Fold this sequence. Notes:
By secondary structure, the protein is α/β, with parallel strands linked by helices. Helix content is 30%, strand content 19%. The protein has helices at residues 33-41, 55-61, 78-83, 102-107, 120-135, 138-146, 172-183, 208-214, 234-239, 257-266, 309-329, 362-372, 401-408, and strands at residues 11-12, 24-27, 45-48, 67-70, 89-92, 112-113, 164-168, 187-191, 203-204, 217-220, 244-248, 269-274, 298-300, 350-357, 377-385, 388-395, 413-418. A hairpin with a 2-residue loop joins strand 15 (377-385) and strand 16 (388-395). 43% of the residues are buried.
Amino acid sequence: MVVVRALDLTEDRRLGVAPPEGGSVLLLEKVHSEAARLFHDAGFDVESVPESLPEDELVVRIPGVSVLGIRSKTQVTRRVVEAADALQAVGAFCIGTNQIDLEACREKGVPVFNAPFSNTRSVVELALGEIIVLFRNVVEKSWLLHDGIWNKSAHRSREVRGKRLGIVGYGNIGAQLSVLAEALGMEVHFYDVADKLALGNAHRAPSLKALLEISDVVTIHVDGSPSNAGLMGKREFRWMKDGAVFINLSRGFVVDLPALKDALNSGKVRAAAVDVFPQEPGGNEEPFSSELQGYRNVILTPHIGGSTEEAQEDIGRFVPGKVLDYLRQGNTRLSVNFPGLQLPERRGAHRVVHIHENVPGILARINQVLAEAEANITGQYLKTGEGIGYVITDVDGQCPPEVLQALWEIPRTIRVKLLY
């Protein structure tokens, strides 16, 4: 645990509730120490917990916490959010945010920031490495040597050059994999439900079925949207080319593992690599079980696609940077649940944040309150979306507590803050 004294970076006034003294950060699931250092240097009390916390325990721990930092296992449910009485922001030190109730956070005026780019290279390198290893039949040959059997043979060992790579999901990871795989001499095809620009010589497939039918190796890189649940099932494995390789480094729930097991047993899939599972242990001390255990042509890894030292350090810098930028300047660019604003730094003025339900007339009421207080507006920024409105107002002169109280009293207000 790392604990230091905190600075009050914001003044958060709720009706009848005084602003909290100081600020605290709770980091779970072995978030990189760089994150703790950055929050420490910003003047926060920082508590680091190596494991995820179950909902009941997190509900008890969350009161008084200003910033919550998690990775993929901690479930930030509506109940957790409702128990949070001082929460200013949530940092997801990973790509996915499906473990967070984004709507509940938004309704409470809490932006969520993730790390959409920081571990991209790590996932891509693992995918490429597994493609090469599986095509060369390295895993099975390694098992034989561990059993004392020397089997020097080119049987079932093939180069990846000239093979067709089918990428399902052409986002940050899929696109970068496309470029590097093409550099290895692979013929790249991809499928995505959204229109995406093909990089290099990659070919866009008209449908998932069309992609699966032609690919020598299929690799999944979709997001955690509920619509992706069961994306690869019995029907989809039947569509695959006979003897293809299959890789999933995205989300556990997108693949029907019993269907994959059947495809392995029949030889439809010659080899596979799986990094994510529908049910995963909450920590390293818990046991793991899967129907894919024991297969000598399957690589199983414990959700480590983005777990390199470089990626975790980058994430440990990126997410605190976004959170602190929000707390200091009000910037919400790259927030996953808030309207995105990137604001200029303003000197010689006070910056007031007003978060409200997205209904007509709120901006006029804000300006009426400021006009009655004879506050000169030097800059004002508004963006709405996802049910909320986000207004930043820079004013000359003083912004006394009674002005903030009047802003709180505007109907449909969610949160008011004086940043500086």
